[in-house]
Amino acid sequence: MLTTNYKFELKGVVIHGKKRGKELGFPTANFKIDNSTSPGIYLSFTEVLGKKYPSITFIGTVDTFNETDFIGESYILNFDQDIYGEEITVKVLKKLRDNQKFKSVEKLVRQMHQDEEKALKFFAAN
To answer: Taking the model in full, what pTM does it have?
Structure first.
């Protein structure tokens, strides 16, 4: 089963971010991490409030918007709850792609949709 086959685990308390993910149609649970974690976009399970959800987790700096803070963000698939202040555990399963800087917000959103489509297919098959 996938939950026992994860690469690494991250824990943190959900904090307020810039709300950019929500504005782009991909609300994320933001949490602080140290910069020793390998940057990238990962398929993951996010555990919150006693339940486990398929998710896509971003680790790194948001280069498209020229930000320098190293962060963790989980986009929890098919999830719409206020979890600010809750502790989450992210079990990272597989790297989807490297972090990259996009030339426009439109190109970033297009890639995010492609990432979501790949994640949905992955979780449906596993």
So the answer is: 0.90
Condensed to tens digits (0 to 9), the pLDDT of residues 6-26 reads: 889 999 999 998 888 788 889
Q: How far apart are CA 91 and CA 47, in angstroms?
A: 8
Q: Is the CB of residue 28 less than 8 Å from the CB of residue 73? A: yes
Q: Which amino acid appears at position 85 of this protein?
A: G
Strand partners, 47: 52, 89
Please report the domains of the chain, with CATH numbers, ordered by start residue. 2-125 (2.40.30.30)
CB contact at 8 A, 12 and 30: no
Residue 13 in tokens: 């308390």
Q: Which helix (H) or strand (E) holds 119?
A: helix 105-125
Distance (Å) of CA 13 to CA 32, 48, 83: 8, 10, 9
- In the chain, beta strands by DSSP E: 8-13, 29-32, 40-48, 51-60, 71-76, 87-97
- The pLDDT tens digits of the residues spanning 65-121 come to 888 889 999 999 999 899 999 999 999 999 999 999 999 999 999 999 999 999 999
